[in-house]
Model the fold of this input.
Amino acid sequence: KADAFKASGIINTIDTALSQVGGTTAGVGGSVLSKIPGSEATNLNANLETIQANLGFDQLQAMRDASPTGGALGQVSERELIALQSTVASLRQDQSPAQLRANIAKVKKHYQNWLDTLNGINPDERDAEEAKNKGGKVVPNAEDKVLINKYLKVK
Done:
């Protein structure tokens, strides 16, 4: 139950971060404006740090759980922790808004799969059922449309 509560809390933070991503909070604008206290870019930065910290600690815990003694890791350097935090997707605020949204969505799917598993739902079966209900068609989301327009110059 504690793990499900934790996963739900992280998903709420992820949803908040997704709603905050925009031209003034990500990319060049977000990188500059995140230095201004109280700005929306600073708020996004704080949420990204929370998500990254949880990713890093979850990865450390998984590694400890996989160790026969539970303590085979020893001390973990700051550089190693940063690498662990990026195992699912990079959450650097200086990425373009579309890229940051796509990466946050990957992290959300990671935690949603974990929550579903904790609740006895097989994420693979859920995904297959969702695809079946869509008639097997892939429906592009907003990020997909941005990339299609960018690379295929569709108007």
User: Anything to note?
Assistant: Residues 40-66 form the longest helix (27 residues).
